[in-house]
Design brief:
alpha+beta
Length: 164
């Protein structure tokens, strides 16, 4: 029994595999995003393409997507937020981060807000939106290199705590 790559904590055979194999459908949009992530890790590209909304499926570069999936080492999926996507809903937005290593062994995080739509009773991935990213704002003034160090040593910041 192996854990499902989607991070649910359940066995692959009891989580995403039945959805990927077509034995059951994703009742919620979250189940679809988890199954799509798992399909990337398993190289099940037919599932990825089949669960892309029919109206936008032609926009997929299948070769590049398959190459990206096969050349990546998938490290984990984090679901940040879910809006909609329940069995009675028709749309959903799921913000997620998928972590992976590329062929050169560099770490990456794919962060997006997936847009899902139910079409003929089936959930599909329709599009992606940029997630809301909050601008970092400093609460206090920035410590200048030539300012006295905030630790109270009497030294300049650059000669004191900036070195640590």
């Amino acid at each position: 029994m192996s854990d499902c790559p989607c991070g649910s904590g359940r066995a692959l055979s009891q989580c995403c595999q039945p959805i990927i194999d077509g034995e059951q459908k994703a009742e919620r949009a979250e189940a679809l995003i988890r199954a799509r992530y798992t399909a990337h890790t398993l190289g099940s590209m037919d599932f990825i393409f089949a669960t892309h909304h029919p109206s936008t499926r032609a926009e997929i570069d299948e070769t590049a997507t398959a190459r990206w999936a096969s050349e990546s080492e998938w490290l984990g999926l984090d679901i940040i937020s879910i809006s909609g996507g329940e069995p009675d809903d028709s749309t959903a937005r799921i913000e997620f981060m998928a972590r992976y290593r590329d062929a050169a062994r560099r770490r990456h995080t794919h962060h997006e807000k997936g847009v899902f739509e139910k079409y003929h009773g089936q959930w599909y991935f329709r599009d992606a939106e940029m997630p809301d990213v909050n601008q970092f704002r400093r609460d206090s003034p920035k410590q200048g290199r030539n300012d006295p160090c905030a630790c109270g040593s009497g030294k300049k910041y650059k000669k004191c705590c900036a070195i640590a």
